[in-house]
Amino acid sequence: MGCFLKPALKRIAIAVLLAWAAILSPAVANADAPAAAPARSKKGFSVPVPVRSEHGGEPVTITGQETIYDSKTDIFVVKGDAVMSQGGSVLKADEIDIMRRERQARAIGHVHLIDPEIEMWATDGTIDITNETMVLNNAKVLAKKDIYHLEGKQIVKLEGQRYEVKDGFFTTCGCEKGTPDWSINADHMAVNMGHTGTATNATFDVAGYPILKTPYFVFPADTARHSGLLMGRQGESGLRGFQWLQPYYIAIDKSSDATVALDIETSQRVGGLGEYRLVNGKDDYFWVNGAFYNESLRSEENRLSDVSDTQIADPHIPLDRYGIIGMTREHLTDDLIAYGDTVSVSDSLYLREMDVWTLSHGFGSNFGSLRNAASDFGLLDQFQDAFVRLQGIWNQDLIQPQQFALQRLPDATVTGRQELFNNLMFADYDAEAVDFYRYEGIDGLRLDANPRVTLPWRWGDYVYGYGEIGSQAAFYDTTGHNIQIIPVGATPSATKPSHPTCANGGGAELIWNNCAELSPFTAQGTSARIIPYAKAGISTVLDRVYDVEWKSIEKLKNTIEPFANYYYVPNIYQGNMPLFDSFDRLNSRSLFSYGVTTRLFAKTSSLPPEETTTDATPTEELSDADSAVGPLSEEPITPDSLVPHGGNIVRDGERSMQIGSLTIQQAYDIGHQVANGSNMSDVEALLHIYATQVTTFSSQVDYGPRPNGGVTFADLAVTYQPPWSSGSNIYMGKALQGSFLQVGYDYANRSDTVIPATSANASEFVSGAAYTELFDFMGVYFSPDYNIGSKQMLSTEYGVRLKSPCDCWAADVGITDSYNPNEVQIQFQLTLGGLGSYGRRPFGNNPFQGLIGSPTGVLPNY
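Below the sequence we write its predicted structure tokens.
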């Protein structure tokens, strides 16, 4: 509450003080008058220029129908439509009394303060000019654009930022007349801004009816962190049962905090999560999240119905389960960094089954679709034009048997660049030493290097190009049997015992995953190979600038950028070399790639703040002739910025931005087949349109020019925000805001996939999400995900929102019907405007949320 009143109180206090100084001159002028005879004037007056300049600030004026000075009491009285104003602040009352000796002012009758930040009403009030305190009787405060509404029989501002409210209430439903939809009422509120607030005999009222009563309530009264309960999440699921997750936040000190949470799912598990966060700087932190669950509540039927993919190596669900997710960075010196990241779980299905993995944002996302639970740790030393890294990587395989999982322990890498002949050429080098390890199968040591020399060149401003030569060299010292992969669609033998799923599924076709087993062949001993290669490229840029002068767009620039590249690798046999990763094979190539890119840029005049964007990639200025003199800045990136999106740069209030691009490219190999028995690749078209701040469109289409080729792959994505869509001025917690529409489509021809699709014709998916507010008090959400190839709905989300017209509250209910996991889930969320949300966000995210909405709460929503 103090943050609402402080600016206004200071202005009023200064105004009264300056008014007292200003009226000192009339008092001296009337000193010869009889003591009992008050001086009267029907004119207003203002602060003299010398006094005004001495105190800084804008002019202060006090007007009224009648001005009276009583020299005996040394009080000035302004009666009849009394107004005291300074800058944008205006205090009105039937009467304003200024008591010079006591250094106080009193406003009587229809007191009304108008300030850029707040508006206050009272029957009367007093101001202590020296201590900057205030007492308002029968007061009402409307603050922050009609959002926060406070009323009380008496509101007292004490010294500093301490306030007391007697017999009053607080609500954010200040835009509606009459009884507010909800309010917090109390006999007494004491608020110490910057610390805490307390409410005595408090009740939570809905439509004027008390719903919840408590004799004493403590709440934080500043933006600093405080320990206490956070908004939890509740929901109902056909698979999980009733779910209740209740977190508690612990503020440890300025650089560290923690969160613990109880998670109960009545049909599956009971457990808890704990998270610790230590942040000493941007790149110095330690975050770790741990969870433990007991699955005694779970029935065997529930277990079986939750395992959609039975072809993983270990589909067993243990009784006790755990998960650890963490990350750390530490600057040991300015250039030496220690780091580590970990995802470690008790079983292969843990990440797929849980719907809460961490208690805050920042660890990552899409944990449920991970193929490996990977952990890495190491040291990174940076120096001029190079870095050295020593690390280890441990993979927990969530699909194949763990004994085949390949580990990199340790992994030493050196990467750098050296300038040659006064920057005429560049020498780049990468060298790595890795000790590969696995419980079963081939492992051992690999030393590899990739030195290369690049010669960039240009012919004026017309043609650009480069030439590069290099080689890939590797030395191996390995032992053990090779790993044999049985692909999806094959039928593994029942006699192979090395893979439990393959053995148990002998005679059955592999549908979901490949199968791994030991090969009878070994690659034991030492070996080496060196493969040279060469690259070259050429490109140019043709551009033209158009003067359009249409609305905010001053100029348009179109560029046409043709390019061609050549890549050569000689044919050297490598089939007898070990195979650990992609570096172990460099296929022969005599490959030409060519194409053209066209881009469209716009230069606009200064735009209002609400029309600005944030993007990751800067664009060039429209032309050298159009470039302005002044500071050049790239607009910053935000986590909620749309991807993909054109880049923006700003100079002297003018913005240059990319509003569209189209790339068409193809490849041709002289001596080798590229795709489907042809030396010619598909023609690939990439289109991105960034039409204003409310629409983006992107698409990729691959077309096979071979006989009966046709479209082999296609996707498109459209995101649209209607012009009338807007967020709320009030903080709405985790609630989705603003109307939007998203549509996505993916297609892959069955004959052109590496592994034939399981559907009969092709792999086709359609997904979408949309939210719109039908009325001021109601909104609906719909998000389907449909597999056209198998004619199966993978998931569907439905949502309904009921809310107040001025967004002082919102109640959301969402239903999710999904295939994997196979469940129907109901979630709800209650949001009180200005305070936050209670429950789990029941339906999705607005991609424009970062532009129109407020940040989400501490508890993440995946």
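The chain has five domains: 2-160, 171-223, 229-405, 541-720, 728-735+766-862.
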